[in-house]
Task: inverse folding
């Protein structure tokens, strides 16, 4: 992209990335708080994730003697990948400089990179739980990734582009037509989001049950600043997924990316994220945790929906 | 007018027998209704022979030489079967296999079944044809499951599911046909599904759609004809239902389903002009003949044996219709007639034999000839007739089909001959062991009705020796119509 | 593509929902939910028929829609509900094929149907022509459901769903068949359902269950 990059746009980009990093734990806290309310509990408060991060950052890291350098590096790679993704996703505006750097397929690649590293790190120590979690994570991943790609393909067929900003723009200006294929893709995306972020039908981040845990099993050996980074990137991942979903399926209110549109865009984003977080909590409250062996079924359904969306689009042209 | 009467009698009969079908005189009433139907059918036939094809009731009904001969045949076999079923069902009741309410159901459904078949034959509307075929399926499902034994239920369930799925394919084919016709005939009127109208414009119908439609129609109605590999339901339904039902299934329902296929083929061929429909039918027909002939060897149940023989003969007829041309069509029509008559006669004889033996297992039936010469001879002669021995009519039609095949499709003739040979050996050896030897059977409380057996066989014999000129002319007319 | 009239969009939406419902039925293990899905399918069918009737100005289609509503949304599900309660056949014990594999086969069937419908859709003049592929897909998926299930009730629901697909094919390709035929088909379906209802009781009486594995006595040895 050769459009003129001015200081304002860069500043906006900086704001966007900073917002993502700063607000991700807040979103996590909001979802958990909503869940607590829905379940008639008082909850730990919106700021609980921050308090936890601070606590972890103050602690001294204990590292297993068998750990290789990979184990130490992984949290940073994870966090880096998520920050990169946050920069690429048009959360605040569609013409931010970095958003043009990568399209949706690269984005899926970024997520895959993070997944591979955390799975490797989990197996690095050689404990039973680590490899168990890694195996389960890969089981979820190998089905979730194609489903996510299919969702992107479906939407990109409608928008005629695989670049997220272009897709968001095209979808925001498409008029009031009904797109069954888009609805299919949205549902499929939601299912992938739940699975990828260790949310309830697939995984429950609040428990440490060896029969079912996926994410927690992998990070069991981490402590202190490493664990903080991993938790932070998990929050960022959720934030990123929400932003992708909003950009694709509810793209209204996205600014162009210049300095002036930033403030209303920020307002829109906050509102949409608040609603999305509450909706997520609602879904989690209403559904029960699946047995791990049902997870492939769940994700196969997501994949199926995405492919159906694609086929329906090809057939109906809408 | 005859047409209306013809359709009303069995419908009326169904209602009447639904009310009083359990009375002692119900079998006679059933026969009487069937006779009335036959009389009306005969009157209609005479009328059509006299004054040519006719349309009735806003063109919704249509009679031409092709269907009127099937109407006559259906009414006739329906009547004779009702005569046969009179003592047969009494014996079944006596044996405690049926109670009165089941008997009522049987009589009512028998009439309704006749009605649906006649409706399917007489209607001009391809959609109504479908509705009537489905109706025939439903009534026969009830008839097949009449005994409510585990096997009977299984057979009926299989029959329902397979034919239901099959007939759904046929509905889709009909939809496609309508879709093609609507473009030419216009959607506003209701003429777009009328066969006579379709026949007039068949050259303009969209070939792509029609070829697809024909595949669905052939598969759909072909399931009901019992073409291999869609034949699975047929032996079970024949073996587990009451014997009169086996007789009408083989003798009539298969014909009516094949009639539907042929009607569709006429339209499709007229649109495509590439012989695709004919070749498909030939392939299905030939497969059925060969597969059925080899399956005959594995049968232990006498009714299953003859059910497979029905598949074989339906295959022959389908093959002949597939070849097309005046001679092959003539032979196919003749074969349809003689097969109906012979096969129902065989089932009558088999029914009595099985009742005497108390089993349908071939191994346990011996010495029919000693115990009841009429049943024994009926079965023996019927089997010889169905195997195509001269001078029976089956020989004439099979001979015609074979010679036509030799002329037009020389590759098919040896296959056909081989299959016929295999079938001959299989059936003959089994029937022989049943008819001869020392008897192992008991007497029955009601005298069997063997008049229908010999009446049918006599007719078949007559048709083999001499086809009356008016009948031949009639067949020729129908054969030309089919093209 | 955003220029499609609203009615076409509604019909397309209905078609998509029908397809979705078919897949849901394919994966559903609870028989009662299956009946609800079947009723939903009927309702969507009814909606799409009304839309077609309104768009094309074909008043006889309103009658079809009314028949659909009465028969497939209200009467048949009601009968099925009663039957299932009476027979206590709420759970499908097992599927012949696991769900992801069934789904995959279903997807292939959908692709096949779309391919099959392509040449026909191009010839059609109706506003709904593009939905023909979905109609065929619904038929195929119902067929698949009948094959992969063992309970008698599920097979029957599959049969009825297949009829729904055919009805949808008729409305989408040709604005529906002539009225007599539609009514005849509806009558046949109703009678079939009643007969099958009686059948269920007889099967259960004989075998003590509605599992069709009991019905495997008759085969060529």
Result:
């Amino acid at each position: 992209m050769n459009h003129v990059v001015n200081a304002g746009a860069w500043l906006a980009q900086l704001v966007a990335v900073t917002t993502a990093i700063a607000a991700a734990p807040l979103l996590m806290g909001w979802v958990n708080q909503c869940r607590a309310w829905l379940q008639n509990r008082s909850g730990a408060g919106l700021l609980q994730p921050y308090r936890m991060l601070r606590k972890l950052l103050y602690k001294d890291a204990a590292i297993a003697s068998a750990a290789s350098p990979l184990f130490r590096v992984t949290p940073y790679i994870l966090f880096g990948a998520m920050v990169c993704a946050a920069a690429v996703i048009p959360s605040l505006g569609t013409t931010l400089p970095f958003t043009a750097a990568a399209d949706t397929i690269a984005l899926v690649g970024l997520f895959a990179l993070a997944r591979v590293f955390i799975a490797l790190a989990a197996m690095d120590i050689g404990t039973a739980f680590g490899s168990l979690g890694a195996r389960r994570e890969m089981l979820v991943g190998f089905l979730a990734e194609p489903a996510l790609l299919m969702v992107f393909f479906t939407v990109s067929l409608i928008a005629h582009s695989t670049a997220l900003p272009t897709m968001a723009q095209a979808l925001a200006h498409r008029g009031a037509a009904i797109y069954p294929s888009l609805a299919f893709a949205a549902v499929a995306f939601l299912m992938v989001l739940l699975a990828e972020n260790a949310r309830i039908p697939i995984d429950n981040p609040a428990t440490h049950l060896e029969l079912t845990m996926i994410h927690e099993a992998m990070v069991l050996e981490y402590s202190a600043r490493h664990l903080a980074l991993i938790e932070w990137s998990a929050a960022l991942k959720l934030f990123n997924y929400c932003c992708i979903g909003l950009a694709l399926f509810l793209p209204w209110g996205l600014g162009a990316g210049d300095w002036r549109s930033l403030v209303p865009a920020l307002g829109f984003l906050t509102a949409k994220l608040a609603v999305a977080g509450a909706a997520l909590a609602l879904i989690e409250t209403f559904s029960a945790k699946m047995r791990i062996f049902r997870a492939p079924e769940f994700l196969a359904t997501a994949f199926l929906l995405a492919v159906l969306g694609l086929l329906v689009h090809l057939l109906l042209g809408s | 007018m005859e047409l209306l009467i013809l359709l009303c009698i069995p419908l009326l009969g169904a209602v009447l027998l639904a009310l009083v079908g359990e009375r002692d005189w119900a079998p006679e009433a059933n026969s009487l209704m069937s006779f009335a139907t036959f009389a009306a059918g005969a009157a209609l036939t005479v009328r059509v022979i006299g004054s040519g094809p006719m349309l009735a009731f806003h063109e919704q009904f249509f009679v031409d030489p092709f269907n009127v001969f099937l109407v006559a045949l259906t009414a006739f076999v329906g009547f004779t079967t009702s005569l046969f079923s009179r003592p047969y069902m009494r014996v079944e009741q006596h044996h405690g296999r049926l109670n009165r309410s089941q008997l009522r159901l049987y009589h009512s459904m028998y009439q309704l079944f006749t009605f649906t078949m006649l409706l399917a034959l007489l209607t001009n509307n391809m959609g109504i044809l479908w509705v009537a075929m489905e109706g025939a399926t439903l009534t026969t499902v009830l008839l097949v499951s009449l005994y409510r034994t585990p096997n009977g239920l299984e057979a009926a369930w299989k029959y329902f599911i397979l034919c239901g799925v099959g007939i759904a394919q046929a509905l889709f084919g009909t939809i496609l046909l309508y879709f093609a016709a609507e473009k030419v005939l216009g959607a506003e009127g209701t003429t777009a599904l009328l066969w006579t109208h379709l026949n007039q414009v068949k050259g303009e119908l969209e070939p792509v759609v029609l070829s697809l439609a024909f595949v669905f129609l052939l598969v759909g109605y072909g399931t009901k004809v019992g073409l291999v590999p869609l034949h699975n339901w047929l032996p079970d339904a024949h073996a587990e239902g009451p014997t009169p039902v086996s007789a009408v299934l083989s003798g009539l329902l298969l014909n009516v389903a094949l009639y539907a296929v042929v009607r569709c083929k006429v339209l499709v061929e007229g649109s495509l002009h590439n012989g695709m429909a004919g070749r498909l039918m030939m392939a299905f027909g030939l497969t059925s003949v060969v597969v059925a002939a080899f399956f005959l060897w594995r049968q232990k149940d006498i009714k299953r044996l003859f059910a497979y023989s029905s598949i074989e003969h339906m295959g022959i007829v389908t093959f002949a219709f597939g070849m097309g041309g005046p001679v092959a069509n003539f032979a196919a029509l003749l074969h349809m007639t003689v097969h109906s008559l012979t096969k129902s006669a065989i089932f009558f004889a088999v029914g009595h034999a099985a009742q005497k033996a108390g089993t349908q297992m071939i191994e346990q039936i011996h010495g029919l000839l000693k115990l009841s010469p009429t049943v024994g001879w009926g079965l023996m002669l019927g089997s010889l007739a169905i195997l195509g021995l001269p001078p029976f009519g089956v020989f004439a039609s099979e001979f015609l089909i074979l010679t036509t095949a030799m002329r037009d499709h020389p590759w098919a003739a040896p296959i056909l001959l081989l299959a016929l040979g295999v079938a001959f050996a299989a059936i003959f050896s089994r029937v022989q062991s049943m008819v001869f030897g020392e008897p192992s059977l008991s007497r029955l409380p009601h005298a069997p009705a063997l008049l229908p057996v010999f009446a049918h066989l006599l007719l078949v014999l007559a048709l083999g020796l001499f086809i009356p000129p008016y009948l031949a002319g009639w067949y020729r007319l129908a054969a030309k119509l089919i093209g | 593509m955003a220029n499609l009239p609203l009615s076409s969009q509604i019909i397309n939406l209905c078609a998509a929902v029908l397809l979705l419902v078919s897949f849901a039925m394919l994966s559903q293990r609870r028989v009662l939910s299956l009946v609800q899905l079947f009723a939903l399918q009927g309702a969507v069918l009814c909606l799409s028929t009304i839309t077609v009737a309104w768009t094309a100005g074909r008043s006889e289609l309103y009658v079809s829609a009314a028949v659909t509503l009465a028969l497939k949304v209200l009467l048949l599900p009601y009968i099925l509900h009663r039957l299932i309660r009476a027979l206590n056949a709420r759970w499908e014990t097992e599927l012949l094929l696991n769900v992801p594999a069934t789904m995959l086969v279903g997807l292939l069937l959908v692709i096949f149907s779309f391919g099959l419908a392509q040449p026909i859709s191009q010839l059609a003049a109706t506003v709904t022509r593009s939905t023909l592929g979905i109609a065929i897909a619904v038929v195929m998926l119902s067929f698949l459901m009948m094959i992969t299930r063992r309970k008698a009730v599920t097979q029957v629901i599959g049969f009825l769903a297949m009829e729904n697909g055919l009805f949808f094919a008729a409305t989408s390709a040709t604005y529906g068949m002539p009225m007599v035929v539609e009514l005849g088909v509806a009558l046949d379906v109703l009678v079939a359902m009643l007969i099958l209802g009686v059948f269920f009781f007889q099967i259960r009486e004989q075998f003590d269950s509605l599992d069709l594995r009991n019905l495997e006595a008759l085969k060529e040895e």
Residues 6-208 of chain C form one domain. Chain C has one domain: 6-208. The mean pLDDT of chain C is 82.
